[in-house]
Amino acid sequence: RRIEMKQLTMRREILTNPQVFALLKATIKTDFELLPYHLFCIFAGIRPKEVERLDWSNINIEEKFIEVPDEISKTAVRRIVDMEALLLRWLEYYVRSGGRIEGSVTPAANLRKRLRVIRERASFEHWPQDAPRRTYASNWLAVHQDVNRLNNLMGHTSPAMLWRHYH
User: Fold this and answer.
1) pLDDT at 165
2) Which of 72, 89, 125, 165 is deepest in the core (most CB within 10 A)?
3) Are 154 and 46 in contact (CB under 8 A)?
4) How far apart are CA 145 and CA 67, in angstroms?
5) Mean of per-residue pLDDT scores for the chain
């Protein structure tokens, strides 16, 4: 019985489409500079700490991929993440709207506070830990149905780890 309750409280949450929309809308209105941070977490499944360390030189919009170098990867293994069409459209919007694409992808100044303000403005009472990454994994798998490829995109050591943390 205790195990069942623990499993219920540890439910892996993903963001709904309305929640993603609210988050991106709040980001655009509140702190446009953080839009790429959210885009890469939600639509590329890159870990937040990795996005914080990404440089725009790691983003190849023309070739449609993101390089997560080994020195910034949680697992210390370089990986290439393909950019889906939706992410590319958002990045085009960001660039057209005057977004900066040089230097660090994520501004470091007051990042936690800025993210908290965005989430409050998007009406999140509770922020599910790793929700953007889980959202990416869940949606990508539903469309592509290739757990091995998703495993590589997310930088996991095995599909078993992917299932344990994101299924």
Assistant:
1) 63
2) 72
3) no
4) 23
5) 89
Per the CB < 8 A criterion, the answer to whether 163 and 8 are in contact is no
Which residue's structure tokens are 């939600």?
Answer: 42
- Indicate the DSSP class of residue 104: B
Instruction: Note the pTM of the prediction, 2 decimals.
Output: 0.87
The dihedral sign for the CA sequence 65, 92, 84, 52: positive
8 Å CB contact between 162 and 156: yes
CB 44 within 8 A of CB 38: no
54: Cβ–Cβ under 8 A, 6 or more apart, which residues? 40, 46, 66, 68, 72, 104, 105, 106
Burial (CB count within 10 angstroms: exposed 0-12, middle 13-18, buried 19+), residue 56? middle
